[in-house]
Write a sequence for this structure.
């Protein structure tokens, strides 16, 4: 009896059945590199004293945080600005402005008093004609104001022209940077004795 021949099945791969590579979508992402400088942290401060290349006492400036933390703060040279401090500073500025106005108004009233005053008397030796001996100085004016008006005035703010004879003169009293008492005076001399005369400085 003859045995039937058996042939093992075989798999054949043709080009039509071969696996093809799948095309995947390109999902690459572009990256942009930016060089960023380090941000400098600043602090707003008020200087308690003059500091070279930084500012003057009482000035509000911006400085680096490290400079304030490591130098200004430990040395007590500056104070950090806060909302509470700003509010306090504004109140102080208002107080100072009010005081400036008060001082100026007082100076204006005092100037009016000086310029409306009647006469001052100074004794000096008499010379020939209209001449007098001895100078009329700012100290004379200060002493007269003290004696007749009970007002203390610094002689440094009084300007008196050189007076050698009778005539009309101006004496200036700088009561305030914006207020100067400028009174026109007429000097008269009447002989009371052989040695002295009584001189009047009068408003005209």
């Amino acid at each position: 009896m003859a045995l039937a021949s058996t042939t093992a099945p075989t798999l054949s791969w043709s080009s039509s059945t071969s696996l093809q590579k799948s095309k995947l979508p390109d999902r690459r992402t572009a990256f942009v590199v930016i060089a960023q400088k380090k941000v400098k942290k600043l602090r707003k401060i008020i200087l308690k004293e003059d500091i070279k290349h930084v500012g003057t006492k009482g000035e509000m400036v911006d400085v680096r945080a490290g400079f304030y933390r490591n130098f200004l703060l430990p040395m007590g040279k500056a104070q950090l600005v806060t909302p509470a401090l700003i509010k306090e500073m504004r109140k102080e500025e208002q107080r100072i402005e009010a005081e400036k106005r008060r001082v100026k108004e007082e100076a204006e009233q005092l100037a009016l008093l000086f310029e409306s005053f009647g006469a001052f008397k100074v004794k000096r030796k008499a010379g020939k004609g209209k001449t007098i001996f001895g100078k009329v100085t700012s100290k004379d004016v200060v002493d007269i104001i003290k004696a007749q008006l009970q007002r203390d005035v610094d002689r440094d703010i009084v300007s008196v022209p050189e007076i050698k004879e009778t005539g009309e003169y101006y004496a200036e009293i700088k009561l305030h940077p914006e207020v100067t008492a400028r009174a026109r005076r007429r000097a008269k001399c009447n002989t009371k004795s052989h040695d002295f005369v009584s001189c009047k400085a009068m408003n005209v």
Summary: The helical segments are 65-75, 83-116, 138-149. The chain is about 30% helix and 25% strand. Residues 117-203 form a domain with the Ribosomal Protein L9; domain 2 fold (CATH 3.10.430.100). The chain has a mean pLDDT of 75.
